[in-house]
Each structure stands twice: as C-alpha cells, then as structure tokens.
Amino acid sequence: MYPNHELSVLRRRLLEKIGSTTLGPGDCSEISVQIFVKTGYYVSRSTIKRIFSTAPNLSDSSPFVKNAIGSFLGFDHWEALKQAIDREK
After folding, report:
1. Residue 10 pLDDT > 80, yes or no?
2. Based on the structure, what is the number of domains in the chain?
3. Which domain holds residue 60?
C-alpha cells in the first residue's frame, strides 16, 4: 500500500491532468482514455478507480500499469514519478 502522501499526490496529479480538482462521475473513464491517448497504454477504468478508492492497494499493480501512469503524468517511468513525489514532501 502507498503512504498517504504519495497516494494524495498521485491522485492530485491525475485529476490535474484531466483539468479537475475533485473526482466526479466519469472521471475514472476519462483518465483511462487520456492515458491511452497520450501513451498508447490501456489502463482500465477499474484500475483507476482503485487508485481513488478509500483503501487502495496499488502495490499489487503490475509494472505496466505503474509505468503507464508515470508516462501519462510526464515521467519516463514509475520510479521517476515516485522520486518526484518524494521531493514534494
């Protein structure tokens, strides 16, 4: 499971990427579509929902999903995103 700070930053960055500040109806689908449009990687709406659930367990997410999200947010890979998040502490 992700520490609260990392999860909070990840959620905020995903919402900012679609021009939102709060999760609304259809936003998980929109994030999924935008990840595919920008990166060519398909991350399902269900996976995005898990990120925004109250008790996410993303440690089980595949490297593919993590790297797709990192790429969507403008990083070369997941570890680069995690390093950027750590610098925001």
Report:
1. yes
2. 1
3. 4-87
